[in-house]
Amino acid sequence: MTPRTFPPDFTFGVATSSFQIEGGVNEGGRGPSIWDTFCRTAGKVQGGDTGDVACDHFHRWPEDIALMKSLGVRAYRFSIAWPRIFPTGLEDTPNEAGLAFYDQLVDALLAAGIEPWVTLYHWDLPQALQDRGGWTWRGTVVAFAHFADAIGARLGGKVRHFITHNEPWCVAMLGYMNGEHAPGHKDWPEALAAAHHVLLSHGLAVPILRKYAPNAKVGITLNLVPGYPASPSVADADATRHFDGFFNRWYLDPVRGKGYPPDMVADYRALGRLPAEGPLPFLFPGDLEAIATPIDFLGINYYSRAILRSDKLPEAENAPRTIPEPGPEVRTDIGWEVYPDGLAVLLRRVAADLPGIPLVITENGASWATPPGDDGVVHDTGRLEYFRTHLAVCADAVAEGVPLTGYFAWSLMDNFEWAYGYAQRFGLVWVDFTTQQRVPKDSARFYADVMRTRAVPERG
After folding, report:
1. Predicted TM-score (pTM) above 0.85
2. Residue 315 sits in which domain range?
3. To the nearest whole number, what is the mean pLDDT of the chain?
């Protein structure tokens, strides 16, 4: 069969985030973040792991750029550690040492022929802002706009792609609703306020970045999950509608100018998560217009699908499942089902919802802990096949006319995987966290070939 191919202008890259790889938490004037605090809270992070050292990228960035160049990487998505720039988030002027770190990183990337894609916020909020309420406090929106101004002023002349936020759903729901992520709160009204303020800060940051970088492309990254009813029952269909509103539409709709989904507002009112009547408590005049500031692209993070089973009885109890619970043979180490068809469905749906807006896969990847073998090579067949099947879906989508313009593999290297600590490995490159040795895996060599040839080979 003929390999699936990508057009010449399609962007291939790899992605990381600051807290997950940098380390150097007490160096260069960096202040504490909510994840520093969370890591030191008993029982919150697996194994008691911290990001104090992580992949030591703060010191080893020249080595990591050389590694990317050796693999043929031409675009690198990374994030700025907010506490490196404003240690408390409340300073009037930015920390010069923090700005200089990212300035030299960007210069070195450009010299290596690697395009920097800068994400402003990938979850490491300055702890001092959290002490005032974090994303539930409207003042954090103002602080984020100030942060965006500092980054735009320093890097706007060099960086051609900016992402304001990574995964607002995770910030709000994992951080303020179920407590799995920093700051570890469990409060629905807080979570909905946090979600709104993250989206609002995105809307305010877009024109700020454009002021300094008028030729740059500015977007936001959402983690989107297609939902599938477990049976044809009405109850499972309604559970799927609610999930889609909770996970996808609550973020997609405001960004595309439609405001918050009315059905979800009604659901949240009925569940007591919003006041039974009256205006939304976090919504001020002009907020929705700001959130809907036009974007140049939408970043999509995709890992798996969701299968929804209603908890409303007796209908769900009496409706046999037509989609079985995925077994361990189709799950990664983190427990997520490998389901590339879900990405195809998602791309078509988002392309229809946001006509004319370019799409970029800003994260896609899989966790398997496959170590180096006796030959010193990491034969991570599962990850290699994950990339092969998902890249094939992307190529097919482009051929169908979906405006997909780029793909970033998650992640360049094994790193600190949030509440899982170092127990989950998503990297194309194996990292020995004791010695900091980097070992490209078979999946890295596979992806390097795809980037070089712009073709996805059939399974050999």
Report:
1. yes
2. 4-456
3. 97
Query: Which residue in this structure is represented by tokens 């800003």?
Result: 362
Q: From the candidates 22, 190, 363, 417, give the one annotated as an active-site residue.
A: 363
Which among 296, 199, 205 is positioned nearest to 254, based on CA atoms? 199
Q: How many CA atoms lie within 13 A of 219 on its CB side?
A: 21
pLDDT value of position 3 = 82
Residue 447 token pair: 């992806």
Measure the N-to-C terminal CA separation of the chain; round to a whole number of Å.
11
363 is catalytic: yes
Distance of CA 126 to the CA centre of its chain: 19
The alpha carbon dihedral of 109, 433, 423, 130 has a sign of negative
Hey, what's the torsion of the CAs at 233, 258, 400, 305, to 10 degrees?
A: -40
The Cβ-side half-sphere exposure at 446, using a 13 Å CA radius, reads 24
Query: How far is the C-alpha of 394 from the C-alpha of 391, rounded, in Å?
Result: 5
- Determine the Cα–Cα distance for residues 268 and 250; give it in Å rounded to an integer: 11
Mean pLDDT of 337-345: 98
Give the SS3 label for residue 458.
coil
Instruction: Please state the domain count of the chain.
Output: 1
Per annotation, catalytic residue among 22, 167, 190, 417: 167
Task: List Cα–Cα distances, 280 to 131, 141, 165, 186, 233, in angstroms.
Answer: 24, 17, 23, 20, 32
- Give the C-alpha separation, 44 to 26, whole Å: 21
pLDDT beyond 80 at 62: yes
Q: Is 190 a catalytic residue?
A: no
Q: What is the SS3 assignment for 346-366?
A: HHHHHHHHCCCCCEEEEECCC
